[in-house]
Amino acid sequence: MKTFKALSALLSYPGPDLIAALPEIDAALRRDGLLGPKRMEEIGHLLRELREGDLYDLQERYVLLFDRSRTLSLNLFEHVHGESRDRGGAMVDLLETYRAHGFDLAGTELPDHLPVLLEYLSTRPLAEARAILADAGHILVALSERLIRRDTRYAAVLTALVALAGLASAAPADMPAELAAIPDDDPEDLEALDAVWAEAQVTFGPDPDAGCPVSRDILARMDAPRAPAAPR
After folding, report:
1. Which residues have CB under 8 Å from 28's CB, separation 6+?
2. Whole-angstrom distance, CA of residue 76 vs CA of residue 169
3. Residues whose CB falls within 8 Å of the CB of residue 171, separated by 6 or more in sequence, listed in order
4. Mean pLDDT lowest among 27-36, 43-52, 175-184
5. What do you get for the CA distance between the two ends of the chain, in Å?
6. Of 41, 108, 114, 148, which residue is most buried, by most CB within 10 angstroms?
7. In contact, 118 and 137? CB cutoff 8 Å
8. How many CB atoms are located within 10 Å of the residue 97 CB?
9. Cβ atoms of residues 152 and 66 within 8 Å
10. Tens digit of pLDDT for each residue in 34-56?
């Protein structure tokens, strides 16, 4: 299944290689058939924007969205650990899990970077990939809803991931109060951006000392023993 790899590519920094691969990405999504007509139509708008837009404008918009906006960060654990040392430990565990399944990072991105996770999921059975996505579902819902509010075509990718995770919708009502309470940051307002980055990290669950449910559940899902394959 190439769907997760294709969605990973669409969330990556737009460069000439990505633009050249757009027809292949479209073909892979259609061939797998995991996304319904509505999701494919939304993805199609993003593909068209990437294909027809000026590359430098596309790159600038990408940076303002994902690199300059903490609330839109594609580093998943950042939304639950902030910059605390717990995030570092969770990423080390995630990296070890990747390697245990024969998946090595070749680039410079962090292990919790969403496109990296999607690359990994493209190597796993579909049911397992869906379950891992569901464990991070509330972050995906938050990102999707925020991108919809920004009126950006990238919302289509997060909305597709929400659907693949088996969540009913990406409506604000599905977002935990802790994430919903964080105001969107303006990447052009450097003072406000500093204030957002200074916010305390979000925690979930009744016991904040019991570990982060997101990173814990994702890692547990990855490390769960697999049933042996049936003989052919």
Report:
1. 2, 3, 5, 6
2. 19
3. 141, 145
4. 175-184
5. 21
6. 114
7. no
8. 18
9. no
10. 999 999 999 999 999 999 999 99
